[in-house]
Amino acid sequence: MTAMSDMPPDKPDVKPRESDEVRRRIIEEYAANLRELIRKLRQELKS
Questions:
Q1: What is the pTM of this model?
Q2: What is the mean pLDDT of each run of 10 residues along the chain (47 residues)?
């Protein structure tokens, strides 16, 4: 049995900046959608 450190990594730890940008954009979009949903829910609950 070999140790985990002997195995080559599936993918490098260093990721290109583009993937971070894309991930951030997706998270921001998701957060905006959530805020919109919460706002609509609050309006429904008030009325």
A1: 0.53
A2: 63 72 95 98 95
